[in-house]
Design brief:
- There is one protein chain.
- The chain is built from 7 helices and 10 strands.
- It has about 220 residues and is α/β, with parallel strands linked by helices.
- It has a single domain, classed as P-loop containing nucleotide triphosphate hydrolases (Rossmann fold).
- The strands form 2 sheets. Strands 6-7-8-3-9-10 form a 6-stranded mixed beta sheet, sandwiched between helices. Strands 2-1-4-5 form a 4-stranded antiparallel beta sheet, with helices on one face.
- The chain binds adenosine-5'-diphosphate (ADP) and magnesium ion.
- Magnesium ion binds next to helix 1.
Amino acid sequence: MSAIIQATEVYKIYDLGEERIEALKGVSVLINQGEFVAIVGKSGSGKSTLMHILGLLDTPSSGEVIINGTNTKGLKEKQLAKVRNNEIGFVFQSFNLLQRTSVLDNVMLPLKYSNVPASKWMDKTMEMIKLVGLENRIHNKSNELSGGQKQRVAIARALVNDPALIMADEPTGNLDSKTGDEIVKKFLDLNAQGKTIILVTHDEDLAKIAQRRIVMHDGCVVEN
Ligand SMILES: Nc1ncnc2c1ncn2[C@@H]1O[C@H](COP(=O)(O)OP(=O)(O)O)[C@@H](O)[C@H]1O
Ligand SMILES: [Mg+2]
């Protein structure tokens, strides 16, 4: 099995002047291609911080992150953005969609920052919208959708660049349990199709669907 993410001795320290918060205290994790991993732990244990660093949305205070064989240490923001856009799809609790923008444009957005030629944007976008079952909503603005529909748009957007890796931070946190179950099923399907999934959650029941759990406590991995 080949590693898709290898993080070694990652520290993240927030220096707030009078206060110093050690959000990560020497975290090392290895995630292989095709795995479905849950990062679990209580609120404030450092899960989101770790996901942001593994996803190159944030940089560690020290330590290193290797993604698909590329050591990201010392890369400039532009280079980080390139790895991020090509290798990773993100899904967040708050959906992070453009509010007064259509489903179609929300899903298409990442393609505009990719190497995919413009002539293919529409086909790819529609393929992903169909995958999440929203083809009858393409012209609706995202603020006209239900929570579950919004999260399906976010998943379609995360997938449109065909990333090998999907990272989801509390993706069912704002959904009722039935809708949450549908979203979870979507992740299981994607994993069955070969995508690597990293699911961040404080919900122990939700974490059970993963093959492996990485348990965080107070900035450290306490179980892996
Ligand atoms: N931008 C930030 N500035 C200062 N402290 C932060 C910041 N982001 C997170 N923290 C702190 O780092 C710790 C870990 O937070 P977080 O990774 O969000 O935990 P979790 O996702 O497990 O709830 C918490 O103590 C939190 O208050
Ligand atoms: Mg969090």
